[in-house]
């Protein structure tokens, strides 16, 4: 396993029954909530400007009642054409997608879409940094996986390869993201070691 | 001439009278449509990856009819916390807001919101490039205004200064964006001169 910050993964898992310990305090929150809180912390601390993009919606009908706000009465969810998060960190363009899986032994590639891969390949081509944040919920473990690693599995799948990335590959080629009080999914620390 | 999306620019424009001139052919299209087409061109041509963020919507009620897509039955427009467009160009983080005004002699600062200014100041602090694209509709003229120029007027307004930026200041301190067939609002060319 790679530890860009030199920390042992065991620090998060010292005590199975110890829910008073900070390393367990993120249970019950979704990965998205944790990342949003992290981004808010980064913003407040003047570390980075990274936001989640709004959910794309196709608006069909809007009512404009007198003296009150416009009400959308009919709309549909659209598929996003890019990724969930982007922004700027230490002068670099950052772009990532966050995915949770209930699977314990592998990350199913069905969680990823072709247009996201295309988008991330374009981002990398233009000098941006793109990656996945993958949470194995049953393990309560979060990894940063550089998009290039995922591309290899993706392209392999297109050629008849396996439809998922084994946990051990993510553990080996990805970077475990530590849980912290303020930066709950502290991916910036991993980026520091990897790209700066 | 090659059109990366295979589309002839003339196909969009019947061009009745005088509209055969390229500098007039964008009449009738909104600034947003023109910028979206420009970004699409940049993407297809492998020049940049810049997207408009979806309109943020607060979803209140969703129906899930059997055998068909989820329908949003009640939702409200939310104020965006950032700017309209961002992405990566030549390795740099790009962030901008596009505004049209029907005013001929000045750009009213009421078009801009404090949170956008705060966001852009943070972007600049982290090494990103932020700017406004301002269209004077009656003049059919489009300018790139570096956000630092707008900040000066913004901060001045806060201290009792004027509530708009005079056209002549934008003409002097901003950069006219030429209209082109393919890149209809070709701001990348201006960025090349300014930042690279």
TrEMBL record, chains A, B:
Q: What is the free-text note on the cofactor? A: Binds 1 Mg(2+) ion per subunit.
- The positions annotated for binding Mg(2+) are 82, 84, 97, 116
Enzymatic class: hydrolase
What catalytic activity is recorded?
Endonucleolytic cleavage at a junction such as a reciprocal single-stranded crossover between two homologous DNA duplexes (Holliday junction)
EC number per UniProt? 3.1.21.10
Region ranges (Disordered): 1-29
Q: Where does this protein chiefly localize? A: cytoplasm
Where in or outside the cell is it found?
Cytoplasm
**Names of the cofactor(s):** Mg(2+)
Keywords of the record, alphabetical order, are: Cytoplasm, DNA damage, DNA recombination, DNA repair, Endonuclease, Hydrolase, Magnesium, Metal-binding, Nuclease
Chain positions of site Transition state stabilizer: 99
**Residue stretches spanning the membrane:** none
Fetch the HAMAP family from UniProt: RecU
Q: Which family does it belong to?
A: Belongs to the RecU family.
Job of this protein: Endonuclease that resolves Holliday junction intermediates in genetic recombination. Cleaves mobile four-strand junctions by introducing symmetrical nicks in paired strands. Promotes annealing of linear ssDNA with homologous dsDNA. Required for DNA repair, homologous recombination and chromosome segregation.
User: What is this protein's name?
Assistant: Holliday junction resolvase RecU
Originating organism: Halobacillus kuroshimensis
Taxonomy of the source species:
Bacteria, Bacillati, Bacillota, Bacilli, Bacillales
> What gene is this protein translated from?
recU
